[in-house]
């Protein structure tokens, strides 16, 4: 065979098939793994050399001094992994392949936690990325459960951070849920440590107190006026790790009086004194550590995109070429300038509201098609039948907005024709790359053909707009 660049891949494929045959035919197996708990227990025959080579966990667990032997075979018990999950992992260790397409979110989570226990870092990283990119709607519906299950998984950092970022955007959905009072303390602490928790501090405090009461043994009295000193001491003990994470100095005097003062016995004496002094003697310098105010996240008023899309666009504005979900904090706010269904779909309105407003982001929902397109003007819009120059502009597709693996980004190739300003057109990127002729919601008045940008971002050449929005990009 003539050597080519693909020869190594062909050899790897052959190796994978041969090892797969070895597993399926139990040829020369020297270990039997009993996986699962009654009544769901299965035996798997495998090869110690392969397991130890592929997994640091098995490298130690199948060492001779720890292994139990029967009839020349090593017997290994693994009761805390589901047999069907271990079967997939075993195939991965032999084949170097895994099929995730038909798996639901819970099965993927089981694979992830099992892979973490078996110290399969590459495997875990792949599943985390798959969950974030392909199952983010399921993640949004199961955030607390995902965080609880992955709490002790050392290889699940990316997934946990992504979930915490989602909660930080809408913490009320978690704090107000029925399961919040029984949630894990580590989850609560992880949230309180975040500077981007988008909720008023007094609300955060009220939910922390609610959680503390629910998790303090023998604290049954609901009327605080009937509490004993022992009750306050017990609650203080439950919340002693949480209290330093509350931004008490961002709570107004009225809210302090109504919500904090009734529980002041659970606060350290010095902190309580500092808070009182802060409210009664403005300008006084507290002795306690004062945490900075929380960043309330992005100000986003949109019917088309969500904060997860806006953060992605912010990354593109900063020159990053991320194609998928990101939990990097946004450096910009998006200020809504115009919305089609409220302000109209004509070029005159667009220019009256958007011209000379500096950098802007345009997003549009195609009519009759489940696709979101958009563009970034790094300069500013104007009329006069002139091209607008910029080397930092780009156009993009967010697909249907649900699967971020469908995202497409195209940066400007010919900076001299980045945008075009004309009284008959609304947003107009390149000579033909993405342009909206007035009125934008008329059939085929909008189009997308590659010219001034490196690639086209949609297969739809002509279309009408169901909705469009333009945002002024404001640095934080």
UniProtKB/TrEMBL annotation:
Residues 29-102 form the BTB domain. Residues 303-474 form the TLDc domain. It comes from the Eukaryota. PANTHER family: BTB DOMAIN-CONTAINING PROTEIN-RELATED, HL07962P-RELATED. This is BTB/POZ domain-containing protein.
């Amino acid at each position: 065979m003539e050597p080519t660049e693909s020869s190594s891949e062909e050899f790897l494929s052959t190796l994978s098939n041969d090892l797969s045959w070895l597993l399926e035919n139990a040829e020369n197996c020297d270990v039997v793994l009993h996986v699962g708990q009654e009544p769901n227990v299965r035996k798997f025959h495998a090869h110690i050399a392969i397991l130890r080579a592929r997994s640091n966990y098995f490298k130690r667990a199948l060492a001779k001094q720890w292994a139990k032997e029967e009839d020349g075979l090593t017997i290994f018990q693994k009761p805390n992994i589901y047999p069907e999950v271990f079967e997939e992992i075993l195939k991965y260790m032999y084949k170097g392949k895994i099929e995730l397409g038909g798996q639901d979110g819970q099965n993927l989570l089981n694979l992830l936690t099992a892979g973490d226990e078996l110290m399969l870092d590459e495997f875990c990283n792949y599943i985390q990325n798959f969950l974030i990119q392909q199952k983010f709607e399921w993640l949004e519906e199961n955030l607390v459960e995902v965080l609880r299950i992955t709490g002790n998984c050392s290889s699940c950092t990316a997934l946990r951070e992504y979930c915490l970022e989602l909660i930080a955007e809408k913490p009320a959905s978690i704090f107000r849920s029925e399961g919040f009072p029984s949630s894990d303390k580590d989850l609560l602490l992880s949230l309180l440590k975040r500077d981007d928790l988008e909720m008023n501090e007094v609300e955060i405090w009220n939910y922390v107190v609610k959680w503390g009461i629910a998790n303090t043994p023998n604290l049954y009295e609901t009327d605080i006026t009937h509490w004993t000193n022992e009750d306050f001491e017990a609650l203080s003990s439950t919340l002693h790790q949480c209290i330093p994470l509350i931004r008490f100095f961002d709570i107004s005097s009225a809210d302090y009086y109504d919500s904090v003062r009734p529980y002041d016995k659970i606060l350290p004496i010095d902190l309580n004194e500092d808070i009182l002094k802060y409210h009664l003697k403005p300008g006084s310098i507290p002795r306690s550590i004062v945490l900075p105010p929380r960043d309330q996240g992005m100000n986003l008023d949109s019917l088309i995109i969500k904060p997860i899309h806006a953060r992605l666009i912010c990354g593109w504005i900063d020159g990053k070429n991320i194609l998928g979900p990101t939990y990097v904090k946004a450096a910009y706010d998006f200020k809504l300038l115009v919305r089609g269904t409220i302000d109209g779909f004509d070029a005159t309105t667009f220019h009256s509201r958007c011209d000379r407003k500096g950098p802007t982001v345009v997003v549009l929902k195609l009519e009759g098609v489940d696709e979101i397109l958009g563009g970034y003007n790094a300069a500013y819009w104007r009329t006069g039948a002139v091209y607008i120059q910029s080397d930092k502009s780009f156009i993009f597709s967010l697909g249907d907005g649900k699967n971020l693996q469908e995202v497409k980004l195209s940066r400007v190739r010919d900076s001299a024709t980045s945008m075009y300003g004309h009284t008959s057109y609304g947003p107009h990127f390149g000579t033909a790359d993405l342009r909206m002729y007035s009125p934008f919601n008329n059939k085929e008045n909008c189009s997308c053909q590659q010219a001034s940008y490196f690639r086209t971002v949609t297969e739809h050449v002509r279309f009408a707009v169901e909705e469009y929005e333009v945002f002024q990009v404001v640095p934080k």
